[in-house]
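Q: Please design a sequence for this.
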């Protein structure tokens, strides 16, 4: 049986067609006559159907066709008789008008009727055939930026030649399509390119790859690899039009050779950040080796870029294949952050002030220090003052529910009780330095941060001390398993929910889920192991390795969420850690008599020592000068701990630059804790008001003077549970030149102010209202709020003086 498609005949219409041996579309109410029996059946069907419903009869043999004509004439059955050639059948099959240049012989010889092409709404035969073999871009009416890359790469592939060889009709289709595209455009470069598509698409792909990579470099760079007349043509092609063009491998290697020569020659002359920016402008941003050449310029220390300069590099190479976010993040080491404020010895800071200093100033600068091995004595003295403060205030800090890491799960208790599924991720050693990588990874997976705060870890900052205390939420000394601790926690604090302890990601992926409320705790250890290793020996960076680890966490969390049967609103991810970590500079390492050191510091990844009280007095005094005799204030313990002051490290880490912990530096004891959810947070609007406005008693309007600098003061209230950062201030009306303003961070539930220096232009005198817009970020989400006041803008000259101005 053959395939036949019925047309929409009028009721009772009958069509009898001779189709020979060719395939034809099928459908209902269709009869195919292959033999004499089929002929007899058709005659019966014709007699029954005449005048009642549409019918199509398809006839193979000519004599059957003649018999039917005679039969219908004798029976008085009115029929339409047609002869279907291969070309006509092809049009019926594909439901498209077949062009005049296509003949029956071509249809037959190239077996076009054997192609199983899905019927679609195509206007042209060429569009249908080309789309089938080369992709949907060939159905486009115009060739432009949106489909150029797809068209070129489709025709340049080896299989394109095979298709055109097997079906020569494709060459004619391409010729017709190219002419059509050339007619539809007013861009001369597209007209010229249409001709090249037919002549040699592989060569065109290579040339466009060279242009895409070398187009911003000096002109001679391209002319070394492309004939001058072709270079002239290529320069008419907008680079933006081929920014997504897949790169031809051979051409990319040619371009890379030229780029390497360029950097070797230009490198020694790059002496300023302006020179560097010019070189960066030349790059295509599409080759990993190109990225390496750029970073080599920064490594040479001939130029020192700012954060803005490094961001330009990241932006340029953000879509470069083979460069992940970790590699892009690793170049932050080249941007020297502002040096932190050095607190005076007479200044008495509280916990919030130390947190702000550490998170906003110290941590970025410290990371730059350790990456560049840059010692700063004054800053180290500030870090030691922090250690002094923390050890002194330790008891009160750990008793504060808002500051103690030990109390964080209790702080979140009501939220965990109310949820259907709570996932607590306990990342073993998560320094603030690398927090953004985990947060970014969770954001990309669709989880939004709902809360971020900073907590102080117990001393010593070590897993064996800190982790059990955090899980149990109290200071009772315990040798129970983590699973036992969590089960008790569930009974006491989490409404006796089902609790599952997960020692690794595999267990998380395999955990059984249902709608029963549950708390899952993932104890993630690889981050601590990684930070204690020396990744530089493997030619990697901590950024790259941690990014990969955090991506694994995120993938597992996303998988868990996707197979969980509950509502998104009932699922939360809580991220905590047990301590941070420090990377120690050579200048910060001290040394004592080897016997004492080897006895007390048995593991070089820890900076603290645990000493029996009975032996503490026998320890040389020069050890205690480097740190503190620390005893636990909340735990009955027969141990005295040596906690190093600042970054003092008595036992140097052998042969490497890995991280260590156990001290009281900011990066070890101040850690992030956060909540993420798969739903967007509902942030509260800021409270805003103008301060110190001069109000006219009659009009009740604020008075401002044009053409002079006028300081505007705004009081800002942050009612959210997260800190906010003011990003920018714009005067929407009237016409104003903003000369400057401050951009404070405002902690959760706190107040701060912004002062804007405004110069109201002359046209402002026609306005009756002042409107400002403050743009701020909360949890990395950018938001804006407006503030308006009825205003009267006056000329300074018209202001004058009167006795009313005198007090």
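A: Design:
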């Amino acid at each position: 049986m053959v395939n036949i498609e019925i047309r929409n005949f009028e009721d009772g219409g009958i069509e009898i067609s001779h189709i020979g041996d060719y395939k034809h579309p099928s459908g209902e109410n269709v009869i195919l006559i292959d033999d004499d029996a089929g002929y007899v059946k058709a005659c019966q069907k014709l007699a029954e159907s005449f005048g009642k419903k549409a019918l199509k009869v398809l006839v193979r043999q000519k004599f059957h066709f003649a018999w039917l004509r005679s039969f219908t004439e004798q029976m008085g059955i009115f029929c339409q008789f047609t002869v279907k050639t291969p070309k006509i059948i092809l049009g019926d099959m594909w439901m498209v008008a077949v062009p005049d240049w296509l003949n029956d012989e071509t249809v037959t010889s190239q077996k076009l009727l054997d192609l199983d092409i899905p019927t679609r709404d195509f206007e042209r035969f060429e569009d249908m055939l080309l789309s089938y073999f080369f992709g949907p871009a060939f159905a486009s009416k115009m060739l432009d930026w949106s489909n150029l890359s797809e068209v070129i790469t489709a025709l340049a592939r080896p299989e394109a030649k095979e298709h055109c060889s097997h079906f020569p009709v494709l060459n004619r289709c391409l010729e017709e399509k190219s002419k059509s595209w050339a007619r539809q455009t007013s861009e001369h470069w597209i007209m010229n390119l249409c001709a090249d598509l037919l002549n040699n698409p592989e060569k065109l792909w290579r040339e466009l790859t060279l242009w895409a990579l070398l187009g911003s470099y000096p002109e001679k760079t391209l002319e070394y690899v492309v004939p001058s007349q072709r270079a002239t043509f290529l320069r008419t092609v907008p680079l933006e039009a081929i920014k997504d063009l897949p790169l031809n491998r051979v051409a990319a290697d040619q371009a890379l050779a030229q780029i390497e020569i360029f950097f070797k020659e230009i490198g020694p002359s790059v002496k300023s950040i302006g020179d560097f920016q010019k070189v960066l402008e030349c790059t295509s941003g599409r080759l990993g080796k190109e990225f390496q050449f750029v970073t080599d310029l920064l490594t040479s220390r001939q130029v020192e870029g700012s954060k803005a300069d490094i961001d330009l590099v990241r932006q340029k190479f953000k879509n470069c294949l083979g460069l992940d976010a970790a590699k892009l993040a690793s170049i932050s080491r080249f941007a020297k952050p502002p040096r932190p404020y050095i607190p005076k010895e007479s200044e008495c800071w509280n916990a919030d002030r130390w947190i702000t200093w550490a998170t906003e100033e110290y941590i970025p600068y410290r990371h730059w220090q350790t990456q560049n091995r840059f010692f700063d004595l004054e800053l180290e003295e500030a870090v030691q003052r922090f250690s002094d403060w923390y050890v002194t205030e330790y008891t009160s800090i750990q008793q504060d529910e808002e500051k103690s890491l030990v109390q964080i799960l209790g702080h979140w208790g009501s939220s965990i009780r109310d949820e259907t599924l709570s996932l607590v991720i306990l990342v073993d050693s998560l320094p603030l330095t690398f927090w953004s990588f985990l947060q970014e990874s969770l954001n990309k997976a669709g989880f939004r941060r709902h809360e971020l705060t900073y907590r102080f870890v117990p001393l010593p900052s070590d897993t064996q001390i800190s982790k059990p205390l955090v899980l149990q939420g109290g200071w009772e000394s315990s040798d129970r398993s983590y699973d036992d601790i969590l089960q008790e926690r569930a009974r006491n604090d989490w409404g006796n929910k089902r609790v599952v302890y997960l020692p690794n990601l595999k267990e998380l992926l395999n955990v059984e889920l249902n709608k029963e409320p549950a708390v899952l705790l993932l104890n993630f250890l690889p981050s601590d192991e990684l930070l204690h290793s020396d990744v530089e020996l493997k030619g990697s960076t901590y950024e790259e390795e941690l990014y990969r680890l955090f991506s694994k966490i995120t993938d597992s969390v996303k998988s868990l969420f996707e197979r969980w049967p509950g509502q998104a609103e009932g699922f939360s991810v809580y991220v905590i850690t047990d301590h941070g970590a420090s990377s120690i500079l050579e200048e910060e390492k001290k040394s004592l008599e080897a016997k004492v050191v080897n006895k007390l510091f048995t593991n070089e990844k820890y900076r603290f020592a645990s000493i029996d009280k009975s032996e503490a007095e026998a320890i040389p005094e020069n050890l205690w000068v480097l740190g503190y005799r620390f005893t636990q204030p909340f735990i009955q313990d027969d141990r005295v701990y040596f906690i190093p002051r600042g970054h003092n490290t008595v036992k140097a880490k052998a042969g490497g630059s890995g991280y260590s912990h156990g001290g009281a530096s900011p990066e070890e004891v101040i850690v992030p804790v956060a909540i993420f959810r798969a739903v967007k947070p509902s942030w509260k609007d800021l409270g805003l008001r103008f301060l110190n406005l001069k109000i006219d008693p009659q009009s009740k309007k604020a008075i401002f003077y044009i053409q002079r600098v006028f300081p505007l003061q705004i009081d800002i209230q942050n009612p959210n549970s997260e800190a906010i950062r003011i990003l920018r201030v714009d005067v929407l009306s009237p016409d104003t030149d903003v000369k400057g303003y401050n951009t404070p961070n405002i902690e959760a539930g706190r107040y701060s102010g912004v002062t804007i220096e405004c110069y109201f232009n002359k046209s402002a005198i026609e306005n009756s209202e002042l409107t400002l817009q403050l743009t701020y970020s909360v949890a990395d989400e950018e938001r804006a709020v407006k503030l308006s006041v009825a205003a009267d803008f006056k000329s300074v000259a018209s202001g004058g003086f009167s006795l009313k101005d005198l007090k």
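Q: Thanks. Anything notable?
A: The first helix runs from residue 36 to 49. The chain has 31 helices and 22 strands.
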